[in-house]
Design brief:
about 450 residues, alpha+beta, PH-domain like, eight-stranded antiparallel sheet, seven-stranded antiparallel sheet, 21 strands
Length: about 450
Amino acid sequence: MKQNDDAQNKSNNQDEVKQEPQIIFDVKISFSISDFKGENLTKGEAQLKLDEEKILILPKFKQPILIPLLDITGIEENDYKLILSLTSNEILTIFDLGYKYNDFARVLSRIYNETLLKRLLMQETLKKTGIAAEFIYYDNAGNEKYRGRCEPRLYETGLILLPEKGDLKRIPYSDISDISDEDYKITINFDSGEKLILSQMGRDFESFVKTLSDTMNELALKVQDSMKELIPKANPLVLRKLAQFMKEGKAATRADIESISKDLWVELEKKIATAGIKDEYDFLKSMAQQQKMCIGLKRGLLGDLTGEYLWFLIPVYDVVSKDYGNAIAMEAITGEEGGKATYFFRIVSRKEYRNFKNIDDLHKKVDEFIKKINRCMLAINFRREPIYLPDERLQEPQYQKYLYAIAKISELKELRELFIGRVIHSSFEKWKSDVIDLLKFNITETEDNLKWKRMK
């Protein structure tokens, strides 16, 4: 009898595993699918079914169309039409929903954003959720860009804005220049000049403000604690100033760090030396514009489980000698373990680099790149795979999660274009030989889309 019960339980468990997600929206629509050139591939009327994982389009007597939500890279609205960009480089347009349009657009946006949150490029503790608010987002010129209802969620290192319609937005706390709260409104100014205003939170306003303040303070203290562990001799005032430059993992320039204390840069370089890549670091440094070199400190992806790691940027460029140049090297090291590879990026177009005569013009380009790579690395939580993986590898199931980030994060898209190649660490001599080969390749080639590959 027990065996029969066990068999029945096993059967029930299997039924539970096979159970399909519940249909959330079921509506008649018209649709069209076109390629990236705008040429129509198919169109017609259909029944659309939406659940938490996918959209099903069921035309009469035609092949059904299944679209996983994770295959959507963007949703736009235009004249009561929903325009969905897909990872297949196709465009799905949904229309003729009648009075159900607004409800469907809102539900699709919510489910899509929730799906993305599960696969977002970070693993963080959720600090505050379940709050409704009004938001207004301004660009750096002071023009209103978005407004509407939203749910603001507070995570360990950033604020997630989930609008009723439109894509979610992640705002790293390190991008915030200042915050004010008055008249039950929170005004958040960013380093970029953009601004966010949150209001109409009702009874949740005070608790939201407190959680936001506590979370940002906690993060700032972690940075200071990490700095103290890294540089035990530094006094608290120096650590606080340094933490401002190196918020949440940002790489700070040598010039900025030495403006606080000349000794700080030396101490940070000593930590790199203990990680087993001193020769590699010194070699890159010998070719570098040394005041533009950067060092950052980032807590590991799983918090205390992986500790902290240092990462550095070394710009190699000149207007006199152009045997090597137009490149920035990036590497990350953990504890006493050296890095696995050195990553290289172009500063400007290869053709453009040949025409630079003024070093100050190149300095400005490098300053822009440093801001760009800081924003990008924070946005993707310091994962490097979405930067260097070629397009064909991104179609593999384990990497498809990066397609959304590439489509939505402009800095990541640009870094992929600027990426030259990576040099794996084996022996120092082999690494050095490959680095020289890569830098020569970057100077001699004229086409920007060409990537360096190690000769076998």
